[in-house]
Amino acid sequence: MTNHWVDIKNANVIVVMGGNAAEAHPCGFKWVTEAKAHNHATLLVVDPRFTRSASVADYYAPIRTGTDIAFLGGVINYLLSHDKIQHEYVKAYTNATFIVNEGYKFDEGLFSGYDEPGRKYDKSTWSYEIGADGFAAVDETMQHPRCVLQLLKQHYSRYTPEAVSNICGTPKDAFLKVCETIATTSAPNRALTFMYALGWTQHSVGSQMIRTAAMVQLLLGNMGVAGGGMNALRGHSNIQGLTDLGLLSDLLPGYLTLPRENETDYQAYVDKRTQKPVRPGQMSYWQNYPKFHVSLMKSWYGDTATRDNNWCFDWLPKLDKVYDVLQVFELMFHGKLNGYVCQGFNPLAAFPNRAKLSKAMSQLKYLVVIDPLATETSCFWENHGEFNDVDPATIQTEVIRLPSTCFAEENGSLTNSGRWLQWHYKGAEPPGEAKPDVDIIAGIFLKLRELYKKEGGAFPDALMNLTWNYRIPHAPSPEELAMEYNGKALADLTDPKDPTKVVLKKGQQLDGFAQLKDDGTTSSGCWIYSGAWTEKGNMMARRDNSDPSGLGNTLNWAFAWPANRRVLYNRASCDPSGKPWDPKRTLVYWDGAKWTGPDVPDFKADSPPSEGMNPFIMQAEGVGRLFALDKMAEGPFPEHYEPFETPIDTNPLHPKVISNPAARVFKGDLEAFGKGKEYPYAGTTYRLTEHFHFWTKHTKLSSIMQPEQFVEIGEELAKEKGIKAGDRIKVWSHRGFIKAVAVVTKRIRPLTVNGQTVHHVGIPFHWGFKGVAKSGYLANTLTPFVGDANTQTPEFKSFLVNIEKV
Amino acid sequence: MALQSLDITRRSATTTPSPGQRRTMEVAKLIDVTKCIGCKACQVACMEWNDLRDDVGINHGVLDNPTDLTENSWTVMRYAEVELEPGKLEWLIRKDGCMHCANPGCLKACPAPGAVVQYSNGIVDFHEENCIGCGYCITGCPFNIPRLSQKDSKVYKCTLCSDRVAAGLEPACVKTCPTGAIVFGSKEAMLHHAEERIADLKSRGFAKAGIYDPKGVDGTHVIYVLHHADKPEIYSGLPKDPSIGAMVELWKGATKPLASLALGAVAAGAFIHYVTKGPNEVSEEIEKEFEE
Amino acid sequence: MKRDPDKLDRYTAPERVNHWLVAFAFILLALSGLALFHPAFYPLSQLFGGGVWTRILHPFIGVALIFSFGSMFFRFRKLCVLTPSDWEWLRHAREMMGGDDRNMPEAGKLNGGQKLLFWLLAACMTLLVLSGIVMWRAYFSFLFPPAAIRLAAVVHAATGAGMISLIMGHIYLAIWTKESIGAMLYGKVRRAWAKQHHPAWFREMTGGRK
Fold this sequence. Notes:
By secondary structure, chain A is an alpha/beta fold. Chain A has 21 helices and 33 strands. The two termini of chain A are 44 Å apart. Chain B has a four-stranded mixed β-sheet. In chain B, strands 1-5-6 form a three-stranded antiparallel β-sheet, with no helix packed on it. In chain B, strands 3-4 form a two-stranded antiparallel sheet. Chains in contact: A-B, B-C. Chains B and C meet through helix 3, helix 7 and helix 8 of B and helix 1, helix 2, helix 6 and helix 8 of C. Chain B: Residues 27-55, 122-151 form the 4Fe-4S ferredoxin-type domain.
């Protein structure tokens, strides 16, 4: 979230799209009801199904799954053609004025630079024109034919209400009603918030769906303001913490990135990531990359990391490709990966194409599962009849289960969607032999180190030199780890303005990442978490909910990264002269000497408005990007591409380029995609409020609430197929089948798309063959093995199925 | 199951006054159906607080589960897909459970002294240890709420967490409701809160938004805010004008004194007749005839 | 009872056993029913082991009554057919209650009042059984809609009260009419008694002989 949960109460218009907040985030949804009750907010829901969120919405518009870019592109077109943008904001705070490289083109669904056999782009033309001064060229009048605003207009002029309706199946009047309501927030005193979740991320164009909405927000001037923003609703209590700490295969903590295999030179690696401003007077905060990186390496390797050995850069893995889960299972499937440690993760249930996953795991020599529950993954080799029809005799994989604790059985912090690190305390003793994950990993680490010491081995350095100064080496405490993430001074730190004044003594906890140095005198395990555990103590454990501004910025409640800031880009809540666009939602303002306000300014605190520094300080331009340059895999402007399995077997905008041309498709998986003729119905998987993934079916209470697997279909489709509510039906895709009880509902209506009728089949995914709920099929038996071109998040939300009564 | 014993206003099948030295504030639970997202957290909280577990059932082709109130599910969400205007779907989700009527039909119908009680705060509670399992409360309830357990032949229903309320806490469902759709306080405050909600709903085009606090049972201590207060029946059959009903009134009203009186009259009549008229014996004449 | 070969056989042993079975079941039903009917009578539930046992036993005793009265019904139904003379008898019943039986038509084995009682009891019991089934929570109530159960409750209560009144009348008349309890206990009546109270039957049995 750029904003945070409580801030939703400040919104005037709330769009729930690409998510179902009431269903999957009922606790956070309280802020939606709060906005409605006390801010007279309007709630819009756009979804293939009339969801629980829709049940309390002011307006609901149906949409075909996987077509959100078309819808939102249509919104952009509406805003531009009806002149419903916040002009001053767009001009000052976005790259609308920037002039794009002459070579940039878009034609028939492809951007310039496409490499068809490689399914990727040469993105060199997706760039700004550089002026004589060495900076990006801009046209303040925004009339230049190659300025971003003009290109944007041109790109989305195809997304007419008729085209949107034709692609999305949304009735034209419903689409226009949504547009009108969204457009009201172009006024500076109105804000719109987008609440989305995996309904956007889990598409082959998921990242671009989110981007399209972000562009809408930039045009409306809703980024950085209270009640605005792009608000990703994270699906696990600590999944935000997972990404922050860099648990994705190509990341280091704090969104630093691992080097690629061609990046063997430390200086080149750092220089590439140390972005210089591309416009005069801009902050370009990533200029500080070396400080974050060096402090991280000091945290890991302590005294061993020195300037002379490039802070142990050589010990970092160099990626030949991204090892996302799809890639890992692809390798496993081909026998190229033979050991797998699976921690707090149930891939057999959670990743697509169960048959492929099951085969892949059968190739492993060993599988280690660290989990509080007996997951399906840890039992993938067991025969559970129709629900897991495998022959254990043919599976040689050795499975080792290490029972771990759950969150309530240990101290620690959880980072919520709003980036708040909230400390919690152990509530119960773990059962049996369960141990905290940290202890398990520490045990493995210590044993490995002992083996290396005793027996030697290839490349022991990275492991042998790791700092491990915990009080109890086999059980590092959450408190010690939190302090390590925050970082400390490794030498006395002095005030940059007065070198005689010692700010922090050697060994003291840092106040925040502003104190980080690239000379090895600071350490920090995750720079964005710096400030969470200072000399004053554990900031995450603070519980003062006083809210002086009434906007929900409770600065003394827990700790929000970065720097306890509650709303990112909050400088954009003021006009260029430093005055809030809307005095009623003042987050920060220029008081004549400094930036101040009820939130922590996301800005250089002493930079007066006259200096012209712009609010988006993480960007080299200082402004929000309507044109994404080379940051996205499939193009600088989001374009509608059909899901890889589309019921219409074409793309009405450009029939030659149907699906995401830059998405990675593994050999063999292309053949596993189904066609609309055989599989006429648009399948989509989702969560239910009664359950959490595959965990709560182990809980009696949740199982009572929703005991048995079901599939939702509309009344019209049910009638066509002779299915009544409560009948058992079979749903199958090109990859497998499931059987479940039919829930026949008015909440799923057939849509007219490109001249044909499209029915949705809704597939909640919570069941499996372990637990106390009724056994069911893993829904991911059905889903395709393809992901988003940028994140490789699988396309769980759009695929094709067929159904029949059993 | 209750902590109160000083503030009972009524007990079932009891003709003498109840212990009522202490007066407590009249309370109410307000269920704002227009804010409810049907998450069932209230169902879970209810089972957790009361430490009950229903059976893991099956799916019946609907989202409702358990599909009806049971002796272990004292509250359930009922989901209704309604189209008042063609094409304008509404998904009306109502939390069902005891309404805690001011004039409770269950209490009226109950033949077991003290099995149903009403506290001065308005909560209607079952004291299962006094329950004889006849099910008359079910017959008397205008909302079809109490459920008879097959296991122990006692009836169970929502207590409005009378134990929590007695200790100054809100009911468990209120505590857990994530959207603030369920709130709890004095009845006066709840009616005031409801008015605010209704004003908001009217501004959103729900001209018939209103409170459900039915007069037929002298009001309830669980009240609803409905978008369509003129059509409560579309909310999974919420009764439009609930009352204890003519039959139950007759049964537990007129019949009781009239019948008792009739029985007394027969007895008295017989006695008077015997005393005034004497026994009906064989006449002297016939006796003589047969003596010969 | 004084042994007297002249006595007339009024009721056979099976008839008497049947009657007393019905009577016994009825008294239990009345007591338990009253206990459940009005708080004033609730202490009667102690006779049955408390409220819960009262609730459990009452309907089963009802079943016993159905069978015992059913049997009695088939024994007496022909005998209880009301003749025009019975109706005439009923019209004069008031005079008789007042002590003047001069204008009474001659009663047969059973008089009009007894016959009417029989049919009224049969009707009451039919209603009680039907409404009782609807009200029997443990086994049957779930089959019926609440409105039916409520109606049944009223019918059961009102009919029950009516039937208790009838039986109280019946008992009183048995006490009032001396020697009739003995008749139901021992089966025999004196000839004088028969002539006094059931002259037509007396004639039928004896041909008018003493």
